[in-house]
Amino acid sequence: MEEQYLFSTIEPKWQKKWLEEKANETDEHSAKPKYYALAMFPYPSGNLHMGHVRNYSIVDVIARYKRMSGYNVLHPIGWDAFGLPAENAAIKNQQPPGEWTWSNIKNMKRQLQEMGISYDWSRELATCHPGYYQFSQWMFLEFYRHGLVYKKKAAVNWCPSCSTVLANEQVVDGACERCETEVTKKDLEQWFFKITDYAEALLADLEKLSGWPEKVKTMQRNWIGRSEGVEADFIVENRDERLRVYTTRVDTLFGVTYVVLAPEHPLVRELSGGTAYESAVLSFMEKMKGLNEISRTSAETAKEGLFTGAYCINPLSGQKVPIWIANYVLLEYGTGAVMGVPAHDERDFEFAKKYTLPIPTVILPPGQAAAKDQPLTAAYTAPGIMVNSGAFDGLDSEEAWDKMADEIERRGLGRRKVNFRLRDWLISRQRYWGAPIPMIYCDRCGVVPVPAEQLPVLLPDDIVFKAGENPLATSPSFTETLCPQCGGKARRETDTMDTFMCSSWYYLRYTDPRNTALPFAKEKVDYWLNVDQYVGGVEHAILHLLYSRFFTKALRDFGYLQADEPFENLLTQGMVCMNGSKMSKSKGNVVSPEEIISRFGADTARLFILFAAPPEKDLEWSDQGVEGCFRFLNRIWRLINQTHPLFQGAAAVQSQPFAGADREMRRQTHLAIQRVSNDIGVRFNFNTAISAIMELVNAVYLYKEKAEARPAILREAAETVLILLAPFAPHIAEELWEQLGHASSIHAVPWPQADEDALKLDEVTVVLQINGKVRERLQVPAGMDAAALEAKALALPKIA
Questions:
Q1: Residue 335 DSSP symbol
Q2: Given 38, 89, 166, 688, which is the most exposed site by the fewest CB atoms within 10 A?
C-alpha cells in the first residue's frame, strides 16, 4: 500500500474514473425505491465560494448515503444562468452575455467535479440554453391559456441603477435586493402572473410541509398575509360615488371619524377639485410620487395627511365623515382607502392627535362601560364590550363583529371578504439576458401569443447596450415579425421574463432533461416528485420557494403532474462566516475553495465544511480546523496501512460470543454505525457523525496494539471506518477500499446495519447516592436484578 496520503494524485484519478464509468448516472428503470436529492442550482458567477461548497457537500452526503442504503437516487445539477450580472459584465467588458456565462459555467463545472460531488452530469441544464428557455416560454403560454397571465399598466418598482422593474419580493427595505439602490415607482405596461389565484392554497398547504423549517413557513404565511374582514361602502356626500373600505375591525365602525385615501386614488382630484383645498392636495400628491412605499409606510416615518374638502357617510351610523389623504395609505394594498378609528388603532390615534380629529370610544374592557365618554391616553386595541354603537351597545365585540357584518350586507353597503397581502407576480424585465416573453403585437389582431411550434423565440445577437434603454428594442431583426394570425406586419414583445420564472420549474426538467417535445413527460415527473430533500438558502423563502409552489400547483391543475407540493423536505443551511461576518468579496474575507483544494484536497475541504457546525447553523471559518481535518484524514490513511497487514486475508466476523477487548471493539464499531446512520439519515447532524467516526478511529488504534486482537474484528472495524467515511470524503475512502483489495466501488457497498447483540454492554456503572450526594460507584453485569444490586450496594462500607 502507498505509505503517503497523496490527495493531489488520488482525487483526479477517481474523479476521472467516476465520470468514465458513469458511476452517478440515474437508472430510471431501477426497482429500488426512488430518492430525489437536490441543492438549489447556482448562478454561474465564475467561481465557487465556500457557501457553494457547503450547500453541495451537504446534499452529496445525503445522496451517497441514500445510494448505499438501497435507493435509486436522482442527484442532478444545472445553472440558473440568466440575469443582470451577465448583462452588466457585457457592458463593462464588451463581451456578449452568453459568451461570459458559458465561460463561467465551464469553470464552475470543473470546480464542482474537483469537489467530487456525485452529480448525474447527463442531466445538466442551463436556463440560458434555447432548449431550456423554449419551455420557459411554453410555460408562459400555458399559464396565459389558462387565464393566469395578464398585462396591465401599473405603478411598478423601478431600479434606476439596473434600469429594470422589480417584483415586490425583490425589494428589500425599499432598495433593490441585488444592487441596493433605492427603488422608485414608475408607471409601465407590464406582464403579471396571477399568483393571487392560488393564495388560499399556498397558505393552507403549508400545513402539509412537516419537513420544512417553521421559520420558512412563517415567512410565507406572513407574506401571503390572509385576513378576514368586511368591505364597507362609504357613500360620498352629494355624489354618486362609493368609497370601498376593507377592514378587519368592522366592530369599530361607529368609531370612524375620518376616511383616508391613498394620494394616488383616482377620486382624489375629483373630490378636491374646485375646493379651497385643491392646490394643497395636488402638491401633496406630487410630493408622494417621489417616495417609495417603504419610506411611506415605515413605523419610523411621520404620518402626514391633508383634508380633501369632501365628506362621506358612515354606512352604519349615518354620520358625515371627512375624507383625507395620507402618506401611509397605498393604492396597491386593499382598496386604496382605509377608515380611521383613532380610539382603537395606534396609527389612527397618532394621526388624530396630530390633526385634532375626534377620538370617540366604541369598545371598552369588560366592567368599564361607565368610562365610555372619558378621553383616552392611548388606543385600546383588545376585544371588549361595545359602547357608543347604537343598537350594538352592550354586546361582546366579537359577537358584534358578526352582527355588524350582517347589517352591512343587509343594507347592500358591503360584504364579508377574505383579503391577502400577496400581490400578483410581476415578471416583465427591461433587459436582454433573459427568456423573451413569447407575445406579438399586431395592429389588426391585437396581442397574439407565439404558437408553440414557433418556440423558442431566440435572443438576437444584433443588440446595443445603452443605459436606460431596453436592449431588445434596439434589434430590428428581433422586433420586426409577422402576425401568426393574419400574416401582417407585427412587432415582438421586447421585455424578457424575471429569472425566477426559469428557476420555478427547473426541478421538473431534471426528471426528463432531453425531452424536445415537452418540458417533461408526465410519467417521469410523477415518478420522481416530490423532491425528497431540498437544500438551499433561507433568503429564497418568499421568492423561489413560493414561486415554485405556485408553479407546481398550477401545472397540477393543468394536468401535467400529480404532486401538490414540489419539495417534501427543506433544509436551509447557514452561512459561512469569517471573523463573525459573512464571507464576501466586498469585505475582503473570502477563502477560495481552489486554494483549500490545492493545499489540502477536496476531501479535507468537504470534511471541514461538514464538521465545523450543524448544517442549519452559521459556520465560522477556521484555518486550524481545516488543518485538523487534514491531519485526521492522514491518520485514517496511516491506520489502514498499519492494520491491513494484520487482517489481510481474514474472514468476515462470525456471529459468536466475544469477551473483553474483542467484545468492546465490536461494540464500538456497531455503535459508530448506529450513530452515523442516525446522524445522516434522520437528523442531518453531519458534525456529530464525523465525531463518531473519529471516536471509532481512536478505538481501532487502541485495539490493534493488543496482542490478542482478532484479525476478523480488526478488519470489520477498519473497513467500517472507510464505509462510514465514504459519503463525507469519497476520494480517500475509494482509494483505500481499492488498496484493501476490493474490486467494486466503496460507494456501491450496502450501508452497514448495527448489530443489536454487539451493542449490548457486559457491564454497566451504577452510581450510588445518598440524599443526592454521590457515595460510591459499582461495576456490575448488565441486566442485574434489583434485589441483587441492592444487596451488593449495601455490602459496601460507605453505603452500609
A1: T
A2: 688
Ordered DSSP codes for 279-302: HHHHHHHHHHHTS-HHHHH-TTSP
**Alpha-carbon dihedral angle through residues 251, 252, 253, 257, given to the nearest 10 degrees:** 180
Asked if 673 and 723 count as a contact pair (C-beta separation under 8 A), the reply is no
Amino acid type, 50: M
- Per residue in 738-764, pLDDT (tens digit) is 999 999 999 999 999 999 988 887 778
CB 356 within 8 A of CB 375: no
62 touches 681 (CB < 8 A): no
Q: How far apart are CA 5 and CA 384, in angstroms?
A: 75
Q: Which three cell numbers stand for residue 353?
A: 392627535
Q: Which distant-in-sequence residues (6+ apart) come within 8 Å of 146 by Cβ?
A: 554, 557, 558
296: Cβ–Cβ under 8 A, 6 or more apart, which residues? Answer: 288, 327, 328, 330
- Counted residue by residue, the chain has a size of 800
The DSSP bridge partners found for residue 441 are 447, 491
Contact in structure between 551 and 140 (CB atoms under 8 Å) = no
Neighbours of 791 (CB within 10 A): 9
Extract the C-alpha cell encoding 493: 414583445
- Determine which of 390-404, 414-428, 754-768 has the lowest per-residue pLDDT on average: 754-768
CA distance 272 to 716: 88
Alpha helices in 559-658 (DSSP H): 593-600, 602-611, 623-647
User: What single-letter DSSP state applies at residue 569?
Assistant: B
**What distance in Å separates the CA atoms of residue 351 and residue 354, rounded to the nearest whole number?**
5
Q: Are 474 and 466 in contact (CB under 8 A)?
A: yes
Residue 586 has pLDDT above 70, yes or no: no
For residue 319, what is the DSSP state? -
All three cell numbers of 549, joined, read 409552489
- Give the separation between CA 176 and CA 547, rounded to whole angstroms: 19
Q: In what order do the strands lie in the sheet with 581-582?
A: 581-582, 576-578, 619-620
User: Could you please report the per-residue DSSP string of 209-243?
Assistant: -TBS-HHHHHHHHHHH-EEEEEEEEEEETTSS-EE
Please state, in angstroms and rounded to a whole number, the distance separating the CA atoms of residues 632 and 733. Answer: 13
**Contact criterion met (CB below 8 Å) for 621 and 591:** yes
Specify whether the CB–CB gap between 572 and 537 falls below 8 A: yes
Query: CA–CA separation, 277 vs 172, rounded Å?
Result: 36
Cα 349 from Cα 260, distance rounded (Å): 13
Report whether pLDDT(297) > 80.
no
> Residue 290: CB partners within 8 Å, gap ≥ 6?
184
Is it true that the peptide bond before 107 is cis, omega within 30 degrees of 0? no
Q: Are strands 34-39 and 72-74 parallel, antiparallel or unpaired?
A: parallel
Per-position b or e across 342-368, b if 16+ CB within 10 A of its CB: bbbbebbbebbeebebebbbbbbeeee
182-212 residue pLDDT tens: 888 777 889 999 999 999 999 999 999 999 9
CB 199 within 8 A of CB 463: no
Q: Which amino acid is at 678?
A: N
Cβ atoms 763, 779 nearer than 8 A: yes
Cell of 770: 445518598
> Which alpha helices (DSSP H) does 1-129 contain, by range?
7-20, 50-68, 84-93, 97-114
Please list the residues that pair with 312 across neighbouring strands.
236, 321
d(CA 619, CA 613): 6
Sign of CA dihedral 142, 146, 152, 158: negative
C-alpha cell at 63: 445522496
| Short-list 668, 611, 609, 603, CA closest to 633 | 603
Q: How many CA atoms lie within 13 A of 96 on its CB side?
A: 9
